[in-house]
Amino acid sequence: MEEMQQLLSMGFPEELAAQALAATGGKSTVKATEWILTHHKSNNNNNNPSPPPPSSSSSSSFQPKLDHFFHSHSQSQPTPDPQPEQPTKRLKLSVSPSQPQPQPQPQPKPSFFFKPPNHHKPTTHIHEPLYERLRPRTLDEVVGQDHLLAPTSLLRSATQRNRLPSILLWGPPGTGKTTIARAIVNSTASPNCYRFVSLSAVTSGVKDVRDAVDEARKLRLKNHNQNQTTVLFVDEVHRFNKSQQDSFLPVIEDGSIVFVGATTENPSFHLITPLLSRCRVLTLNPLKPHHLALLLSRAVNDTDKGLVKSLGFEANVSVGEDAVSFIGNNCDGDARVALNVLEIAAVTAAARAQQCKQKEEEEGVEELQTSEENKVVVVEVTVDDAKEALQCKHLAYDKAGEEHYNLISALHKSMRGGDANAAIYWLARMLQGGEEPLYIARRLIRFASEDVGLADPLALNQAVSCYQACHFIGMPECNVILAQCVAYLALAPKSIAVYRAIGAAQNVVKESVGQNEGVPLHLRNAPTKLMKDIGYGKGYIYTPDNPSATQSYLPPSLQGYKFLDWPDRKPSDR
Known about the structure:
5 domains, 7% strand, elongated, alpha/beta, Helicase, Ruva Protein, domain 3, Rossmann fold, single chain, 5-stranded parallel β-sheet
């Protein structure tokens, strides 16, 4: 029997092991071990004879084997001395081999299963992040999206009338998309009017959506008198492919759910048109520094869910205004980042404060130990703590998303407008965000022809050289090369004559009748006698021999058409 072998391997006598298994049903080694320890101790206290363990009447002789068997924590704990213990409420059993053994009541587990009690145990740590604990519960608590939460806004009107439409919340991370979705349900006029169900497109699929919809329909049929509607919130909805997004269309149409999606990507590029047609797109803006300062103030002042809970012990926490200002100005409007930085900075400051207090106590600096107030640790979060927590400035940038295109557009338009300072700034933003330097260099080559063009033909040489240099040495050394080219192109004279010329010519090729006309005979090549005999090249005037001669180079239907708006140059001037 496996349980018997395990008990024998712990060092228990065979007879005592058999009694323990009989008393506990014979299916659990742990219960049998608890029974032996409890029974053996009770018998010793009552002076009842019982079979002793192999080497001693005390359980201490086989305790090391138990510790090894159960991988207990007792290796770091001293073995308790066999001294009189405090009376404990345990059921005492008298064991007789000839009588059936009653099932013992649940007993406290032996000490080797747990660490010894700590009489100075600190307050239990709250592992839930600070930003999650402080998430606003109603729309009135949401900060920084006043354009969406005004008294006459769509959301306010919908919550007051219990008529929520399907919506898409689009905005950068940490601006309150999930918060608003949850707060909408909690802010309705009737508390039980809506039921909130949350899914994430990162971990869910069509099956999860279908299950949520089926449950919503069943609930609505069951409670048809209450008319409760399910709000299905899908985070990162842009991660669903086209067919997955199609699964939302019929359930939005028949009113089975109210759909609320959240995305950080431009819905025009990542969501299908039928879904956009059924939802109202609400845009969230990055939070301003004073919005972040308000959230940080809430975190410090909230004693139930705020910063104190992150420290794990009672403390008086204060955060300097310079630290709040630093966090607010370096988190790029992301409330989640700001609260994370504050939480890490407070933990750093708390560790320093505890070390200082312990050192002062050891040196005898604090004389008043009787006052409870003197035992509370004072934690002061400084700007240095905030810098240590942030490490580097947070930049909202992704190399394939919305901000990527916003910044390259800003760079391009700054150069077009001749503002070298602004162009270099946007270049620095892209490089700091991790943009590939060769991508920027390719865009500069395009700019050199599109916006500078014939006004400074050497600009193209500069841009191509910039690309080659960036390819040779890479980042971070190529940053100055990119900056030089950006400044050159920004300060160079501008001409879009070539850009407009090629555009106009392409439109004519696509739309006009001239696209079907053949090349005039005098412009055709005539490498063979047959081609010359049928008229190829006939009438062509060799310009180097006749500089003043004129001839037409366009098809007959396009004679006199002008694509390039640029001063005419005579052949002799070339």
